[in-house]
């Protein structure tokens, strides 16, 4: 990941780890929020920021992607969220909060479209009426270029701190996220507070038959990465869909075969049109 990030930011000209197998990674575990917990977090959050966790559990956005939502990515007619920006605060940005037109994943994904449920569209409309988006500079990032060498554009971001800054993870996690979980008593089996990233794993799309490639496109991952990180959601597939798969190839019942045979027989002709036996 370090090498890939260095390549994307123009620090190196080639990735020496390309096609090199990494170390074995065991099955990942994540806290799976229940819908009741997600909505409790929404109700507990300050009104100015409650949409951020909603983007996490409704659209599967990463934290930095939720911070970078602007008014031009809301597909009102198609009910889609076009995720193409994130808020970065790194050494490359001189530790300033910068809105960047770039996803965390491979440069193959310039953006991703995720479905927006009706309740989220309604909540966004109410939020924007109460807290109008504000213009800010955004970096039009280009692969293998340093941020300082990229062009600049303008966008209208939804979320701002009381000091008129873009959000960063430290402020969000320490002042908003963790206090809400503590107040609600939400902890994992070991007594730790779940991370915002765990909201992305609450989707039951995979368990309800939506193809892996569709879910991977929504969250901005490859299918292989999705299988690794969401293995806890896939482990029950044999029980969930095994009976359906078995039914597709099972021997048809005798009555079903007879009915199908009858439907395939030609309709009988009236006596005057029957074959008379002439040569």
Q: Nearest-angstrom radius of gyration?
A: 26 Å
Stretches with pLDDT under 50, minimum 5 residues = 237-243, 273-279
Largest sheet: 4 strands, mixed
Choose one word for the global shape. globular
How far apart are the first and last residues' alpha carbons, in Å? 81 Å
Beta-strand percentage range: 5-15%
Taking all residues together, what is the mean pLDDT? 78
Strand order of the largest sheet: 3-4-6-7
Tell me the series of helices and strands, N- to C-terminal: HHHHEEEEEHEEHHHHHH
Number of helices: 11
User: What's the total number of strands?
Assistant: 7
Helical content, roughly?
A: 25-40%
Q: State the oligomer.
A: single chain
Give me the secondary-structure category: alpha+beta
Summary keywords:
11% strand; alpha+beta; 11 helices; globular
Structural write-up:
- The protein has 279 residues and is of the alpha+beta class.
- It has 11 helices and 7 strands.
- The protein has helices at 2-8, 35-44, 51-59, 63-67, 118-130, 169-184, 212-219, 223-229, 231-234, 237-249, 254-264, and strands at 74-75, 80-83, 86-88, 98-100, 112-115, 134-140, 151-157.
- It is globular.
- Helix 2 (35-44) runs antiparallel to helix 3, helix 2 packs across helix 6 (169-184) and helix 3 packs antiparallel against helix 5 (118-130).
């Amino acid at each position: 990941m370090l090498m890939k990030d260095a390549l994307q930011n123009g620090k190196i000209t080639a990735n020496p780890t390309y096609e090199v197998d990494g170390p074995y990674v065991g099955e990942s575990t994540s806290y799976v929020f229940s819908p009741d917990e997600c909505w409790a977090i929404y109700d507990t959050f300050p009104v100015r920021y409650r949409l951020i966790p909603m983007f996490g559990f409704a659209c599967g956005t990463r934290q930095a992607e939720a911070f970078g939502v602007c008014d031009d990515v809301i597909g009102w007619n198609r009910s889609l969220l076009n995720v193409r920006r994130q808020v970065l605060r790194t050494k490359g940005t001189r530790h300033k909060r910068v809105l960047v037109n770039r996803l965390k994943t491979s440069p193959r994904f310039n953006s991703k479209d995720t479905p927006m449920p009706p309740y989220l569209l309604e909540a966004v409309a109410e939020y924007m009426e109460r807290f109008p988006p504000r213009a800010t500079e955004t970096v039009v990032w280009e692969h293998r270029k340093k941020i300082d060498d990229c062009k600049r554009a303008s966008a209208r971001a939804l979320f701002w701190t009381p000091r008129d800054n873009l959000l960063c993870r430290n402020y969000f996690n320490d002042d908003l996220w963790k206090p809400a979980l503590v107040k609600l008593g939400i902890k994992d089996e070991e007594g730790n507070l779940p991370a915002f990233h765990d909201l992305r794993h609450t989707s039951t799309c995979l368990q309800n038959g939506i193809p892996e490639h569709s879910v991977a496109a929504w969250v901005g991952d490859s299918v292989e990465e999705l299988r690794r990180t969401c293995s806890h959601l896939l482990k029950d597939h044999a029980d969930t869909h095994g009976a359906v798969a078995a039914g597709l190839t099972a021997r048809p019942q005798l009555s079903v075969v007879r009915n199908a045979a009858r439907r395939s027989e030609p309709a009988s002709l009236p006596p005057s049109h029957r074959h008379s036996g002439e040569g």
